[in-house]
Amino acid sequence: MRLTLLILAAFLVGCDGGTSTPTIVGSGNTSTQAVEPDTRRTEVVEPDTRPTFVLDASKPFVIEFGRGSGQHGLDIVKVNETGAVQLSRIEGRPNAEFASLQLSSTDVATLVGLVNTNQLTSMGRMYSDPRMADGTQWVLWIEQSPFQKSIYFNNFFPDEITAFESGLDALLQKAGSGTAMWSPLPRQQAMDQQKALWGRIEPAR
Questions:
Q1: In whole angstroms, how far apart are CA 198 and each of 1, 45, 67, 139, 194?
Q2: What pTM did the predictor assign?
Q3: Deepest of 25, 39, 110, 183, by most Cβ within 10 A of its Cβ?
Q4: Cβ distance 110 to 55 under 8 Å?
Q5: 4 to 22, 59, 91, 139, 191: CA distances (angstroms)
Q6: Taking Cα atoms as reference points, which of 80, 76, 114, 116 lies closest to residue 97?
Q7: What confidence tens digit (pLDDT) does each residue in 20-71 have?
Q8: For residues 34, 35, 40 and 45, what is the CA-based torsion angle, rounded to 10 degrees?
C-alpha cells in the first residue's frame, strides 16, 4: 500500500525529474575529451513469488497495460478474451478520454501468443532504475483465474516487455486505434481506474 500511495501522491502533486550523469573520459596529455554514458548496470529486479502460468486464449482473461508516469498518469489499454478493448488516456491532457476497439479472434490469439512467447508471467514483480527520478512508468496486469500477474516498470524496460508493447500497439492500430472516436471520461471514473491499476503492483499476500 505504501508504494501505491507514493505513486498516487506523485501523480496528484507532481515531482521533480532527474537524469543520470555522464562520465567524462580523456587523456591528461591532450585537450580532447569524449562524453560517454555510464555503462555500469544499476537496474534493480525484484523477483515475484507467484507461480508462472501459460495464458489460454480459450478461457476468460484480462490484460491491462498502463503507460505514462506517476506524475502525469497512465494511458491504459484493457483487453479481455472476447477481443473487447477499452482505451483510456490522460497523460499530458487536461481531461481524461476513453475509446473502444474490437480485436478479431485471430488477433486475440496473437495477443495471447505475445504474452506466452515473451514469458511475461515468469518475469519479476518490479524492474527499476534507481538512477532516475520520475521519468516513465509502466504497469502490466494479467489475470486468468486462479492466476494473477502484475509487473511494475520504472525507467527500466527489458526486451520482453518492449516486444509485447510493440506487438500490442500493432494489433491496436490494425483494429483502428488511429481513427478511434474518443469521448470524455468523468474525472472520478478516471481516478478510480488509475488507482485500481496502481494497486495491482502491491506485493502478493
A1: 10, 18, 11, 7, 6
A2: 0.80
A3: 110
A4: no
A5: 31, 30, 18, 12, 13
A6: 76
A7: 333 323 333 434 454 455 556 689 999 999 999 999 999 999 999 999 998 8
A8: -160
Per-residue pLDDT tens digits for 65-85: 999 998 889 999 999 999 999
Q: What is the pLDDT of residue 204?
A: 59
Grid coordinates in use for 90? 490522460
The 10s digit of each residue's pLDDT in 143-191 is: 999 999 999 999 999 999 999 999 999 999 999 999 999 999 998 999 9
CA distance 169 to 171: 5
State phi, psi for 184 to the nearest 5 degrees: -65, 140
Q: In the numeric block, which cell numbers belong to residue 19?
A: 537524469
How much helix, strand and coil, in percent to the nearest 5, is found in the chain?
Answer: 30, 30, 40
CB atoms within 10 A of CB 150: 21
Per DSSP, the residues of 90-121 read: -TT-SS-EEEEEE--HHHHHHHHHHHHHTTGG
- Ramachandran area for residue 83 (φ above 0: left; ψ -120 to 50: alpha; else beta): left
Instruction: Cell 523477483: give the residue.
Output: 47
Please name which of 50, 49, 62 lies closest in space to residue 145, comparing C-alpha atoms: 62
Q: Which amino acid is located at 128 in the chain?
A: S
CB 148 within 8 A of CB 59: no
Instruction: Specify the 3-state DSSP secondary structure of 22.
Output: coil
